[in-house]
Backbone:
C-alpha cells in the first residue's frame, strides 16, 4: 500500500490521527474507539495486508475504500456486520411500541431510535 | 585451519552437504547456495520478551512473525494485529515494541470507550505487558 492510499483511507473514513514515531490512526463511532491502524513515516511501501487486517476489511472492501466505491457509511455497515461495532438497541419500553414493549430498532447516540423519545 | 561447519536452515533444500567456510581470519562467510549468510538464517518466528521501553515490561513473551518484503523487515504480533517495520530484524522488533507501548497507553487511557475488538486487544495486552509506573 502506498502512503497516499493510506491517507485516502484516513480522509474518507474521517480517522483521528496522531503523529508519533509512526502515523497512528483510529476510527471512532458513537464515542467509542473501534479500530486502529498505523503507517510508518516517509514514502515507504506500507504492509497493506496488515493494515487491512487492522481495519477489519477483506481485499475487495479495502480496494473499494481506496477507489472510493466504499463510503464511510458502507464501512460502518461492514464493521457492524462483523460485530466490530456493537449495535445498541433502542431503550424505549413503551408498551405501545412493537416487540412486546421493546422497540428493537437500532439506537442513536441518545440510546433511542429516531422514532422514540427519551 | 579446519572449515567451520554449521547446520542448514530447515527451509533450505540442499543437494550437497551444507558447509560454511571461513577464511583463516574468520572474516568472510559464504553459503553454498549463495546470498547473505545472515539473511538466510533469519528466523520466521521469534519470542519477544522486551519492549525496548523502560516504562513497560513483558510478563509473558509474545510470538512475533518475521517477514522480509522487498528489503523491508516486518515484525508482526498476529494475536493483536499489530506490526512494526524496519530495515533489519532488530529495528522491526524495536518498532513493534514501540507500537505496542503506544497502544498500551492509548487503550489504557480510553479503556471505558473501546469497541469489542479493541477491548479484546486491551485484555490480551494486559496478559503480556505491565506498566512499571
Residues:
Amino acid at each position: 500500500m502506498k502512503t497516499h492510499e493510506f491517507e485516502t483511507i484516513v480522509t474518507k473514513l474521517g480517522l483521528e490521527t496522531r503523529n508519533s514515531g509512526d502515523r497512528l490512526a483510529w476510527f471512532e463511532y458513537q464515542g467509542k474507539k473501534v479500530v486502529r491502524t498505523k503507517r510508518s513515516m516517509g514514502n515507504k511501501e506500507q504492509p497493506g495486508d496488515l493494515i487491512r487486517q487492522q481495519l477489519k476489511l477483506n481485499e475487495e472492501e479495502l480496494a473499494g475504500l481506496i477507489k472510493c466505491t466504499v463510503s464511510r457509511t458502507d464501512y460502518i455497515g461492514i464493521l457492524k456486520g462483523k460485530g466490530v461495532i456493537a449495535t445498541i438497541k433502542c431503550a424505549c419500553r413503551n408498551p405501545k411500541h412493537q416487540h412486546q414493549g421493546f422497540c428493537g430498532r437500532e439506537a442513536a447516540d441518545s440510546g433511542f431510535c429516531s422514532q422514540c423519545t427519551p | 585451519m579446519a572449515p567451520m561447519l554449521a547446520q542448514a536452515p530447515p527451509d533450505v533444500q540442499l543437494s550437497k552437504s551444507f558447509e560454511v567456510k571461513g577464511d583463516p581470519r574468520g572474516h568472510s562467510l559464504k553459503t553454498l547456495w549463495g546470498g547473505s549468510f545472515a539473511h538466510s538464517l533469519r528466523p520466521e518466528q521469534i519470542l519477544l520478551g522486551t519492549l525496548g521501553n523502560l516504562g513497560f515490561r513483558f510478563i509473558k513473551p509474545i510470538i512475533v512473525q518475521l517477514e522480509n518484503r522487498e528489503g523491508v523487515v516486518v515484525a508482526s504480533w498476529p494475536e493483536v494485529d499489530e506490526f512494526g517495520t524496519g530495515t533489519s530484524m532488530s529495528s522491526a522488533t524495536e518498532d513493534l515494541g514501540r507500537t505496542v507501548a503506544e497502544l498500551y497507553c492509548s487503550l489504557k487511557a480510553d479503556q471505558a470507550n473501546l469497541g469489542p475488538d479493541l477491548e479484546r486487544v486491551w485484555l490480551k495486552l494486559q496478559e503480556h505487558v505491565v506498566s512499571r509506573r
Notes: Residues 3-13 of chain A form the longest helix (11 residues). The mean pLDDT of chain A is 85. The helical segments of chain A are 3-13, 48-54, 59-67, 72-81. Chain A has four helices and three strands.
